[in-house]
Amino acid sequence: MNAPVLEDQSAVPAPPTLRAVTRARVRGAYRRRIVASAILLLVAAAFVLSLMAGHTFYPAGDVLRVVLGEDVPGASFTVGTLRLPRAVLAVAAGFSFGIAGVTFQTMLRNPLASPDVIGITSGAGAAAAIAIVMFSLGGTEVSVVAIVAALAVALLVYTLAFRDGVAGTRLILIGIGIAALLDSVTSYVLSQAGEWDLQEAMRWLTGSLNGTTWQETAPAGFALLVLGPVLLHQARNLSALSLGDDTASALGVRVERTRLVVIVAAVGLIAFATAAAGPIAFVAFLSGPIAARLVGTGGSLLVPAGLVGALLVLCADFTGQYAFGTRFPVGIVTGVLGAPYLVYLIVRTNRAGGSL
Amino acid sequence: MTASHSLSTEDLTLGYGDRDVIEGLDLTLAAGRITVIVGANACGKSTLLRSMSRLLTPRTGRVVLDGKQVHRIPAKELARTLGLLPQSPVTPEGITVLDLVGRGRHPHQRAFSRWTQKDDAAVAAALEATRTTDLADRSVDELSGGQRQRVWIAMALAQQTDLLLLDEPTTFLDISHQIEVLDLLTDLNRTRGTTIVMVLHDLNLAARYADRLVALAAGRLHAAGTTGEVMTEETVRSVYGMESRVIDDPVSGKPLVLPIGRHHSAAADVPAGSPAGSG
């Protein structure tokens, strides 16, 4: 039989093609790594800067000594108690929002399908506000309430959108409705609170890092360390899912299982971050598209989007604290950044003849 | 790679909701051949393809690949033997041709495994086979319909499966691009021995390119066999409810179906007593 001979020939590409493919692939991977490293450096720089700078400036040496546990008069309180937990939470919450946001956007194949647009963040926020304001719960209890509520909202939106499969636009519209409903629940709860604390109210309305202590930071950081790797493990399955369920399945992805694992992990990250910092507006929504612009669409966007999220929250929080006469919570700043992009996306969807 | 895989269905019943789409289908697909499935709209052609690559779980009966039930074969293992190009795959915004074709390597990779030279070779070979090498850096969004279809086929080729199922690979393409795609699949079959099973709407292209034809009517097997056996005036009548003449295609020597409608059909060509003749 001469078939095997022919077969071998066609399976082996011409050397120039192979070289071109390898070169393009290596170049793409190299570029992604360089850009991701650059964002990582920016995150590190913003982190260190937010520890050093403020109403009082502390040199890097003092900051380092505080971080290493030495007692530095003045700096120990300002840096160790006020700034450090706040900066760590900015990174943990930002990374969580970013990675969970891009997960949803990739899985549902729509940049509008971010957890802060489709009500999941609002669910976690409303639950946390109820738990804290009405039941005076704290720490881990709030996180548990938030995660249960966020999963329930995810399930509710999914169920309401389900009719012979889930259509992206239907899910998004239902999610936006649910989000509006839950946001008004949050407003109501806050208006009923006996002692009306503006800082606390802002946290649940727009997200804020003001008054952050380790009690808030620890659960969010821990959740990221556990659930982040779960998402990273699904990165390739997630990329395959963006080609459509049928194609993904034909490529050997167990679609339903992947979706379940990914939704639970991403919703968990959103819930823990929201329980700690409130629903910081639009970070989940913005990080993925920004990361895609920076690193390209060749590889997984999970880590770049997480880094962009961390950078957004660090910078927005710093800006909100010091750039204006009054201190604005971080969510106000990210809200100002995110709202125009949301409008842009909706306008573009309409122009493209989308059914939204 | 060998072309000796056997794919068959045994008493297969498939459905959505409370409706059965395919009922009690027994079918063996010839290894190393091009099989084309034809039938009227909604007769279950796509449903059948979807169940063969386990996108759809059978109500009863089973799909058997090399003696094993496909729904019991681990997902990635199956995806290394059997590929499927769905009718309307989703193109992620901004993805380049090279990246899209690279996604076809998924079943050969693990969660954190590195990209290998073997992956590159498979991608390069797929680009060459589909003549899309020059498009590698382009964004898939900006390609023409024919180019885009070739790129999707390249993705399926990068998967390096011995069996390839395609659901209407020529839809939305103009005639020259349809021929181009079908020629490409024929090359693949002849040079690598890849077993090809596809759904086609155009009976004449089906007759020309198929080694074997499967005609479905209302969820049941109407006829299966060589093109000459299956593509007859009787089959066209039973499957599509339409009169026709089947003649020899002067180009290919295969059957050529000439439909007979109410207009533009010379009276002499219309069989006596047929509904079409009375109009």
Automatic annotation (TrEMBL), chain A:
Subcellular location as annotated: Cell membrane
InterPro entries: ABC_BtuC-like, ABC_transptr_permease_BtuC
Xref: SUPFAM superfamilies: ABC transporter involved in vitamin B12 uptake, BtuC
Keywords: Cell membrane, Membrane, Transmembrane, Transmembrane helix, Transport
Domain of life: Bacteria
GO molecular function (one): transmembrane transporter activity
Pfam families on file: FecCD
Entry's Gene Ontology BP terms: siderophore-iron import into cell
Entry membrane topology: Multi-pass membrane protein
GO cellular component: plasma membrane
Endpoints of the signal sequence: none
Transmembrane segments: 34-58, 87-105, 117-137, 143-162, 171-193, 213-232, 260-284, 290-316, 328-347
Family: Belongs to the binding-protein-dependent transport system permease family. FecCD subfamily.
Protein name: Iron ABC transporter permease
From TrEMBL, chain B:
UniProt-annotated location(s): Cell membrane
Gene3D superfamilies in UniProt: P-loop containing nucleotide triphosphate hydrolases
Keywords, in A-Z order: ATP-binding, Cell membrane, Ion transport, Iron, Iron transport, Membrane, Nucleotide-binding, Transport
One GO MF term attached to the UniProt entry: ATP hydrolysis activity
UniProt keyword Acetylation present: no
Flavoprotein recorded as keyword: no
GO annotation, cellular component aspect: plasma membrane
One Pfam family it belongs to: ABC_tran
Name of this protein: ABC transporter ATP-binding protein
Organism: Streptomyces triticagri
